[in-house]
Amino acid sequence: MQAGARLAPNGIVRPLPGGAFGEAPLTPRPLDAGMGLAVARRTVFRPYDAECFGRVADRVAEGNMSLLGRPLGAREVAERARLRNAIATGALITSGRHLQHGDAQQASRNMEVFTNCATAIASFAKFYLLLNGSGVGRAYDDALVAVDWAQAPDVLLHLSPDHADFPHDRASLHRFGTEFGLLPWGTGEAAFHEAAVRRFIAEEWLASTADAPAGAIVHAIEDSREGWAKAIERLESLAFEGARGRTLVLDFSAIRPRGAPIGGMQGRPASGPLSLMRAFMAIRRDVIAPARDGRLAEPWEQAMLVDHHLSVEVQVGGARRAARMATKNWRDPGIIRFIRAKSEGGLWTANNSVMVDAAFWRGVQAARAGSARAEDKRALEVFEDVTRCAFVNGEPGFINGDMLEDHRTGRAREKPVHHDGRDVRSARYQVDHASALLADLAARAAEAHFPCTTNPCGEIVLHVTGGYCVIADFAPLLACPVDPATVLPGVMPDAMAADWDDRVEDAVRLGVRFLMRANSMDALYAEEVRRTNRMGIGPTGLHEWAWARFGLGFDDLLDEAKSAPFWEALARFSEAAKEEADAYAEELGRVRPFTVTTVKPAGTTSKLFGLTEGAHLPARRQYLRWVQFKGTKGESGNWLPDSDPLLADYEARGYPVRTLRSFPGMSIVGFPTLPLIQRLGLGDRLKTAPEASPEEQYRWLSLMERHWIGAERGNQISYTLKVYTDRHDLEAFRDILLTHQPQVRCCAVLPSAPDAALGYEYLPEEEVDEAEFQAIVAAIRDPALHEALDMAHLACAGGVCPI
């Protein structure tokens, strides 16, 4: 047998994947200068990585293999070396979570910081997951909400005057007044009324816990993610129990000051107690009070508002913004209010989608044809209201809930109902107050019309009561055994093509094993992880690979006969992923994964190497990519002490920098970006997303679902399809959706107007013309950026290549 091969119980010799990468350390792939390096500095590199991706690969591979929980034998040592090489070359990029946190101590960490995708059915669980960096989906169906916040206790807040963040002097009072919305934007320190801010604090906060009413529950919040979530659990469970008339005192004094380093987050600055206090003050003011007086009577709407206020504080936590999905059953009586929650209610912290099914689409068509059935007319009303709102701001979207894998197979309904809190239990966090609430919600979910929902980006199916999916990207372009830029597209020796394909398949198989080991970590949802063993592996940089390996542009890929080698290869890799998942699950004594394949947005991982993201077409030919960093300037014009030091560094080098108003305490840096696909010589065969019609993109998505996701054990594809409002009016937009959306599992369809007309303070990508792009690049003093963005690339892309 070859090195690392294993004899399976059925007598078949199974080779250890990764042989195409070998075990001698390979040279790590350089990151894309500018944006790629900036993303790595912000979210990946540690000081001892010395900005070397090979060192990142070393620690990530070591950490992942340590999850086996035993000394590594020769076979595991070989796998670790091969895994390291696959990561170092970029062929298996894994995910931003793993690149950031993976190291030799991984086995002692909680799974939450390694999961990109999760769901939650209670606010405390959702908040805990967001604090750990997970994106979280929640279904707000009437049948799935059990807490009436009108029954919450009175909430009193205390922060010791001795705490470093207690605002005493004029400067700290001014900052407090600005960040709590007490002062008009732009009010200077010299102009504000100090007494008004002091009076607000005296009225809103309890001066001493000794002043609490008799019989009050006093809860000291611990200085940890678990401590923050436990405070929400305490309040939420009391509301479920009907504790109105009682008093809950929350003491924030033990929380570390703003700017103090967070262990496990590479020393990033803490938000401090004021951030969490602001969330509780908002819940008290905007949820509990109006719920009691009848202005906010619906529990699902109360839950959405609680989650919104908690998410706002994760937005400014310093590490990443909160990522959320909010869904609701199209049949619910309050669906119209849900549809308008973002456009009229200002709830901007989640991606909102309406859960629909085949009956919905039939109803819309029937009502359009004149049906008077109440359900058909309701379906049309929902469809028209969704599309009216979405045509303005892109939300809500539609998710075909009955096409999601666990709904389709019925496995979601197999989840047992537990009454002892085990559904939310890990070594770090144990439910002690909310067991009854969770049992009630689990029983509700067992009877719900839609027992599944998705993560924020829509690519993973998860149970509504809570679940995880560990996900990873592989980049088939970067598995090329030589520099892809030196390859004549689609033309290469057979041996080289075979070597390339072997490396792609090895990256897929190594990635599946990587994810299954991650499923063994201590997890809040350990019970559900054991039940499903769910994972999602998917490609990124597909368009670069299609061009370099097969000589195919986007238009070619839509011709299934012409592009057959591409689709056959993708289907072969999909089968390899599922085969490896089954074999490795048998080897480890675990269940066969419920789902294996996906395509995630791949934002962080793709930017590291300048790739197109996931299944997406390149958004633009050249643009500014804006990235958030924690920090603002003081009155002196200097960056405040707790600001991310990278802000001053980028500003000094001439990168565009702006302070945000809608995200308090945050600023953005603009990175000139010329995608790798622009540098591969496609010329006029390059097609960007604005140049592809909606029909072409739906065709692409359907082909990807068929050949990569597969008929069984697949998740979904995260894809945003832009419909340009200068080409399509509302009725055309509706026709596009009605024709194509029922045929795919999910797709975010985003009507897009000129950037300036959208009304947002900033957009993640800002298109700039070639002259402006050159001027921005010229003003930046960064040799690596200039080397990467040689302006000859722009000339090549325009068909006038000087080479």
Q: What's the β-strand tally?
A: 25
Shape: globular
Discrete helix count: 27
Mean pLDDT: 92
* CATH architecture assignment of the domain at 117-159 and 205-466: 2-Layer Sandwich
Helical proportion, percent range: 25-40%
CATH homologous superfamily label of the domain at 117-159 and 205-466: b-12 dependent (class ii) ribonucleotide reductase, Chain A, Domain 2
Could you tell me how far the N terminus lies from the C terminus, measured between alpha carbons in angstroms?
50 Å
**CATH fold-type name of the domain at 117-159 and 205-466:** b-12 dependent (class ii) ribonucleotide reductase, Chain A, Domain 2
Per-chain topology:
Layout: E1 6-7, E2 13-14, H1 35-43, H2 53-65, H3 74-88, E3 92-94, H4 96-101, E4 117-120, H5 123-131, E5 135-139, E6 154-158, H6 170-179, H7 194-204, E7 217-220, H8 225-241, E8 247-251, E9 261-262, E10 268-269, H9 273-292, H10 299-315, E11 324-329, H11 335-339, E12 351-356, H12 358-368, H13 374-393, E13 397-400, H14 405-409, H15 435-447, E14 452-454, E15 461-463, E16 466-474, H16 494-518, H17 526-532, E17 535-539, H18 542-550, H19 554-557, H20 564-588, E18 597-599, H21 603-609, E19 623-630, H22 645-652, E20 657-659, E21 666-673, H23 694-709, E22 714-717, E23 720-724, H24 730-740, E24 748-752, E25 765-767, H25 770-778, H26 783-788, H27 792-797
Parallel strand pairs: 4-5, 5-11, 6-8, 7-8, 11-12, 12-13, 16-17, 18-22, 23-24
Antiparallel strand pairs: 1-2, 3-16, 4-16, 9-10, 14-15, 19-21, 19-25, 20-21
Helix pairs in contact: 1-21, 2-3, 3-16, 5-8, 5-10, 9-10, 12-13, 16-20, 20-23
